[in-house]
Design brief:
218 residues, alpha+beta, 2 domains, five-stranded mixed beta sheet, 5 strands
C-alpha cells in the first residue's frame, strides 16, 4: 500500500510540473486548447489583404445603433490604449443592413471634418443613453449642431463623393469578411472574432490578443 501511495504522489507531482511548464512557458499548447478555430473564432478564406503587410491590422466592424456594440465600446477603448508594437487598430461602420448606412455616412462625414474623436462616443450615448432617434440626415445633422459642429458643412459631407465611395468599399469588404452580425473583429484579414462565438466581451478581447500573438509568432 505504501509503494502504491508513493507512486500516486510522484505521478501527481509530475502532472503538476507538466501543467505548470505549459502555463509558464508561453502556453502555446495551453492557449490552443482554450481557443479553437470554428468554435471560438472563424478563419476567413481566402484571407483579405489588409494593405499593410508590415503590420498586424485589427478591424472592428460596428453599428452605432447596435446595443451590443455600445456595450463593447468601453472594452475597445481600454484595449486600444496599449496596442502592442506593430499592431494597427481601425473601425469600420457596417453597412451590412441598408438602414445602418445612415450611421456609416455620419461616421465618415465626422471623420472628414476632423471631429470623429470628439463625437464618436457621444453619438453612441445619444442613441443608447438619451434614447434619441438618430436615423436620417436631418436628425443626425441636428445632433451634430448640438455638438458645436457646422451643420451646413456636415450636410455637405454626408452625401459627398468620398463618403459614398467609402460606403461602397465597405459593402464589398464586408462580403469578403463573411460576418453576419456586429460587433465583429477581424484580425489581420485572416480571423473573425464575433460576439456569438466568443460569448462575452471579455472573451472577445482575450481571443483577439491570442490571435495577435499567433500572427506575431509567424
Amino acid at each position: 500500500m505504501l509503494k502504491r501511495w508513493s507512486y500516486t504522489v510522484v505521478a501527481s507531482l509530475f502532472l503538476f510540473v507538466g501543467i505548470a511548464a505549459l502555463v509558464l512557458h508561453g502556453g502555446g499548447v495551453w492557449a490552443q486548447a482554450l481557443y479553437v478555430e470554428g468554435k471560438d473564432y472563424s478563419a476567413i478564406s481566402p484571407p483579405v489583404d489588409t494593405g499593410q503587410p508590415d503590420k498586424i491590422v485589427v478591424t472592428e466592424i460596428f453599428w452605432y445603433g447596435c446595443p451590443h456594440c455600445f456595450r463593447f465600446e468601453p472594452y475597445v477603448e481600454r484595449w486600444k490604449q496599449n496596442l502592442p508594437d506593430g499592431v494597427v487598430f481601425e473601425q469600420v461602420p457596417s453597412s451590412l443592413n441598408p438602414r445602418w448606412t445612415e450611421h456609416a455616412r455620419a461616421y465618415y462625414a465626422f471623420k472628414m471634418m476632423g471631429v470623429l474623436d470628439k463625437v464618436h462616443r457621444p453619438f453612441f450615448d445619444a442613441i443608447h443613453v438619451k434614447r434619441q432617434r438618430l436615423t436620417d440626415l436631418d436628425t443626425i445633422a441636428g445632433f451634430a449642431a448640438e455638438q458645436g459642429i457646422d451643420e451646413k458643412l456636415f450636410r455637405e459631407n454626408y452625401y459627398s463623393f468620398p463618403v459614398e465611395t467609402q460606403i461602397r468599399k465597405n459593402v464589398q469588404i464586408e462580403k469578403r469578411y463573411g460576418h453576419n452580425g456586429v460587433p465583429a473583429v477581424i484580425v489581420n484579414g485572416k480571423y473573425l472574432v464575433s460576439a456569438s462565438l466568443a460569448g462575452s466581451n471579455d472573451r472577445m478581447i482575450e481571443i483577439i490578443d491570442f490571435l495577435i500573438a499567433r500572427e506575431r509568432s509567424q
